[in-house]
Amino acid sequence: MSPSVAQVAGVTASLIRIPIATPHWGEQSGQAFTVRAVVQINATSAAIRQLLLNVSAYPEWNNFVPRVSFPKASTSNSPQPNGSLGEGLLFTEHVDMFGKGKPSGLVRMRLLMTTLEETEHESGKAYKVIWLGKGYPEWALRSERVHAIYPNGDGTCTYDVWETFSGPLALLVRLFVGGALVKRFRQWNQELKEYVERKSEDTGP
Fold this sequence. Notes:
This protein is α+β, with helices and mostly antiparallel strands. It has helices at 45-53, 58-61, 170-203; strands at residues 5-8, 11-16, 33-41, 67-69, 90-95, 107-121, 124-133, 142-151, 157-166. It has a 9-stranded antiparallel β-sheet, with helices on one face. Strand 1 and strand 2 (11-16) form a beta hairpin.
């Protein structure tokens, strides 16, 4: 298997040199690339959407992003009462890029939640959660992450997350942390899957 592709516990993660178009930035070229991870989860698509938005619960399951913080609250930028993400909200991920598990090693990533989309799928409701990177000038580095959640019609769902990077700095991102991103995306999917399925087992039918 290629070093740019990793598969563990049913999660397939890869670095794609022909980038996937995203809703905001569309088709990208040059040094653009995409990191993607896909997993099937024994849960409803609505449950996965809720878990993604509930950033206050990230410390319980998410070792890639163990903490999310918000700028000083204002009427135009306040999280939901339960600490969840909403459209138009600026937030900061505290990212453990190299999996060291040390708070002192976390990197801050400033993001903007842009889209919460619900559509009818042949097997039920499907969802998209989308956010944009806001840590660099757009002329230098653009990033957009898309979380797509589709019901499979048998009580499970498919969670497909990808992030496309473009701009002059995208080459440096790929060279220096491309491999780490593949591992961390795989970790994100694996930990999300394990957490939600364990919670389902604990609560029972």
